[in-house]
């Protein structure tokens, strides 16, 4: 193995990348870094780039979960407030003219409370996803859009996060009483002529809906934190962030 290739492998090892072999990363990229001409990246090592992006995502996840996990984190925020599922919105439209939609107003509140309770519990899931960032991913992200890291995280984890988030959301909706409320709504509608029919899947639909909008709210805040780190030097609170995003 020649000297340049050996140094590339050392850098990959330092970055603790899950790549199978050092040749899977474009040698030209590492050559430019080793020579100190990485297209504006200076003398940054591959390890520093990967660690910097992981630090940015860690900050984004921490900030996001802190924001959405607080009381009214979802409910009081117009950008991420969880709406009722479409079927329940139809029910609300039917009942509101009669002043009979109080139960649904309460249900939306409890749905948002469920999202506020569920999001912080998923912290370890997000952290694990951040750790899987490869060096190749890191360079693509660094040269990407101002939310490239967030888009990476969302694209790579949404499916598995949804599966893992669902029981967390179900438990939270149980604790807040949202699932009991949807049962109450279904029961009351059965006695109302011409009222919309929620169907047997009302509980499952509510859980799935909460998962979808809960994760969307978290990723919204991760993206906002990433944009701030890229644009505002004051948000680069560690040496590695200052070096990578200089």
Commentary on this structure:
It is a single chain. With 246 residues, this protein is mainly alpha-helical. The two termini are 34 Å apart. The relative contact order is 0.16. Helices cover 68% and strands 0% of the residues. Helix 3 runs antiparallel to helix 6 (123-131) and helix 3 crosses helix 10 (202-231). It contains eleven helices and no strands. Mean pLDDT is 80; it is low at 1-41. The chain has one domain (51-244).
Task: Label the overall shape.
Answer: elongated
The first-to-last residue Cα distance is 34 Å
**If you average the pLDDT, what whole number results?**
80
Strand content: under 5%
How helical, in percent, are the residues?
A: 55-70%
Uncertain runs = 1-41
**DSSP helical segment count:** 11
Structural class: mainly alpha
Rg, rounded, reads: 23 Å
Number of domains: 1
What is the number of strand segments? 0
Largest sheet: number of strands, sense, barrel closure: none
Throw out a few tags for this protein.
246 residues; mainly alpha; 68% helix; disordered N terminus
What is this entry, summarized?
The protein has 246 residues and is mainly α. It has helices at 3-14, 27-34, 46-68, 86-95, 102-121, 123-131, 135-142, 148-176, 178-189, 202-231, 239-244.
Write the layout of secondary structure elements.
Layout: H1 3-14, H2 27-34, H3 46-68, H4 86-95, H5 102-121, H6 123-131, H7 135-142, H8 148-176, H9 178-189, H10 202-231, H11 239-244
Helix pairs in contact: 3-6, 3-7, 3-10, 5-8, 5-9, 5-10, 6-8, 8-10
């Amino acid at each position: 193995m020649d000297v340049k290739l050996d140094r590339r492998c050392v850098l990959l090892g330092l970055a603790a990348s899950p790549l199978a072999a050092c040749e899977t990363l474009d040698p030209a990229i590492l050559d430019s870094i080793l020579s100190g001409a990485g297209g504006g990246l200076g003398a940054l090592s591959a390890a520093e780039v990967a660690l910097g992006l992981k630090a940015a995502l860690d900050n984004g996840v921490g900030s996001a979960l802190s924001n959405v996990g607080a009381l009214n984190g979802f409910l009081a925020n117009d950008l991420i407030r969880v709406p009722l599922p479409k079927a329940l919105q139809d029910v609300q439209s039917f009942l509101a003219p009669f002043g009979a939609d109080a139960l649904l107003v309460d249900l939306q509140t409890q749905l948002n409370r469920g999202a506020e309770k569920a999001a912080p519990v998923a912290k370890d899931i997000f952290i694990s996803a951040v750790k899987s960032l490869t060096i190749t991913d890191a360079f693509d992200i660094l040269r990407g859009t101002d939310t490239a890291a967030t888009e990476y995280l969302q694209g790579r984890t949404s499916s598995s996060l949804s599966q893992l988030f669902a029981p967390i959301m179900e438990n939270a909706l149980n604790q807040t009483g949202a699932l009991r409320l949807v049962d109450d709504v279904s029961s009351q509608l059965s006695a109302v002529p011409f009222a919309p029919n929620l169907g047997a899947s009302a509980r499952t639909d509510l859980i799935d809906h909460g998962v979808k909008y809960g994760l969307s709210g978290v990723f919204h805040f991760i993206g906002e934190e990433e944009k701030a780190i890229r644009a505002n030097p004051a948000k680069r609170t560690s040496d590695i962030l200052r070096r990578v995003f200089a």
